[in-house]
Specification:
This protein has about 500 residues and is an all-alpha fold. It is built from 20 helices and no strands. The longest helix is centred in the N-terminal third of the chain and has 35 residues, at about 85-115.
């Protein structure tokens, strides 16, 4: 029996692969190259050292000590700080998934367009007299409603295609590496984006990211790129010698993922000249992956000395294949993440804090009422952002910059709560801790402080930047999600707590 158990234990190598597949996002590097060029490499390395490495060890301690809890980060926070702040913080975390749905639902339109036409044509879409921005928003709203209906009825088979998407994205990484090396060799080691000075690895070629505040705010992109490990905190009990295996795997993963991100960002510069390819009105954060993949195929065709038509065809094939892979990944994730974070929060927190309708599960085990409320909020945000963009005469580039900033802030703010709560979690003496990374309280406090400062600076500068640039729509939208969700959570918690007290007194 013991031999079988030992055979099932996860080794360091297997854990590194699990962490890599969970964290490493191929689409993060085209975004990084678009925003900062080679300068993104420095910030991604800093993100690995100042956020990913220390926070991963903290999340592992949370997950191993609270592995039986079903409430996700709510259970972690509730074991460390007050129930009230745990509820509010997790509600803010929920806003990140809502905004993620808003952004990905519109990116799916771009992937479908790329698969059909070979490139992004959403700027030319018009329905019922609406402009392209409102048309994409309308299609996205219909898509979100359809997915919600399917999930509510237990039709989530399509979620299984996420594994196909994961495999396709891994193949995209291999394609980028092999194609870039071949292009570099055939071009006699001349880069499409030339390196003229070492300062290019610390500054941005993008005019929007050349001010000190803008450059520092890019840190949030790096932190976002390393997000997701909190979902793996519970694996420590399946590890072979967790006290040694997990820290070793985290250190190896930090190096591997950090180098992987840095390498991919550099590789884009082999085939892509920023001014010629990216500095174009039709290129935005929603379609940048397909633009760069199309250009990679084109340059590879030229390196093979193909005809112009054949090289263009190769570029179209590359963009279509990348879009198919991303579509599988997006749809697979959407069918799970539309209900998973919401359900884990509702089921893991005290039922008394919720209206009865919210906690009620349908025959398929789904919190149907809560899902439809969430979908209504998603649709309102999709429509609201699209209408605001139209009213101030902004294009899709502005729209996806706005959605990305909203998503980055909403996704990383909850990490502030998790890291800040960690010293209080460590104070508890009543928990069984099968894994501990921090044995010295002084060392732990120093690391927590550094990580908190990193998160605070990244979020703070991202929030401040649109205010300084007098981009009032961007400023309001960036803080709106976490702020509105936080205020609503406070009001809901206060109201329900008073009702619980009154029922007890009566």
């Amino acid at each position: 029996m013991s031999e079988n158990n030992n055979a099932k234990k996860i080794t360091t190598g297997a854990l590194v692969l699990m962490i890599f597949s969970t964290i490493f996002g191929f689409a993060n590097t085209p975004v990084a190259f678009m925003q900062m060029g080679y300068g993104a490499i420095l910030w991604y390395i800093l993100g690995a050292l100042l956020y990913f490495l220390p926070s991963s060890l903290m999340y592992a301690e949370y997950g191993s000590a609270l592995k039986e809890s079903k409430g996700g980060i709510y259970s972690w926070l509730d074991a460390s700080i007050s129930e009230k702040w745990s509820f509010i913080a997790t509600f803010i975390w929920l806003s990140a998934w809502v905004i993620w749905q808003v952004m990905v639902s519109q990116k799916i339109c771009i992937t479908i367009s790329t698969i059909i036409f070979g490139h992004d044509t959403t700027n030319t879409w018009h329905l019922f007299g609406l402009n392209s921005t409102l048309t994409v928003a309308l299609i996205s709203i219909i898509g979100v409603i359809a997915i919600t209906w399917l999930v509510n009825h237990g039709i989530d088979t399509i979620a299984k295609i996420s594994s196909i998407g994961g495999l396709a994205v891994m193949l995209l990484n291999v394609t980028l590496i092999l194609s870039s090396v071949f292009i570099l060799f055939k071009n006699h080691f001349q880069l499409a984006q030339p390196i003229q000075h070492v300062s290019q690895f610390a500054t941005s070629v993008n005019p929007q990211f050349q001010s000190p505040i803008a450059m520092i705010s890019f840190m949030i992109y790096a932190i976002f790129a390393y997000g997701g490990l909190e979902s793996m905190g519970g694996v420590t009990d399946s590890l072979d010698k967790p006290e040694k295996t997990f820290p070793r795997a985290i250190i190896i993963s930090t190096v591997v993922i950090g180098i992987g991100y840095a390498l991919n960002i550099f590789l884009w510069g082999i085939s892509t000249n920023w001014n010629h390819v990216i500095n174009h009105p039709d290129v935005n954060l929603g379609n940048i992956t397909y633009v760069l993949m199309q250009n990679l195929g084109l340059e590879l065709g030229k390196a093979f000395h193909l005809s112009t038509h054949a090289a263009l065809t190769m570029g179209t094939v590359f963009s279509r294949l990348s879009a198919i892979g991303m579509l599988c990944a997006y749809l697979g994730s959407f069918f799970v993440l539309i209900y998973s974070p919401l359900k884990s929060f509702i089921m893991g927190s005290p039922k008394e804090l919720w209206p009865e309708k919210v906690t009620k599960l349908n025959k398929k085990g789904m919190p149907s009422f809560a899902l439809w409320v969430q979908t209504a909020i998603v649709c309102v945000i999709i429509g609201g952002v699209a209408i605001a963009s139209t009213l101030i005469h902004q294009d899709s580039k502005f729209l996806f910059n706005l959605l990305t900033s909203m998503s980055n802030v909403a996704s990383t703010l909850p990490y502030l709560f998790l890291v800040a709560a960690f010293p209080f979690f460590k104070k508890r003496q009543d928990l069984d801790r099968p894994f501990e990374a921090f044995h010295s309280r002084k060392t732990m406090l120093v690391i927590v402080t550094i990580t908190l400062i990193t998160l605070a600076i990244a979020n703070g500068f991202t929030i401040i930047q649109p205010f300084i640039e007098k981009d009032w729509v961007g400023a309001a939208a960036t803080v709106a999600g976490p702020l509105v969700f936080g205020i609503f959570a406070w009001a809901l918690y206060t109201t329900r707590s008073k009702r619980i007290k009154n029922n007890v007194n009566n």
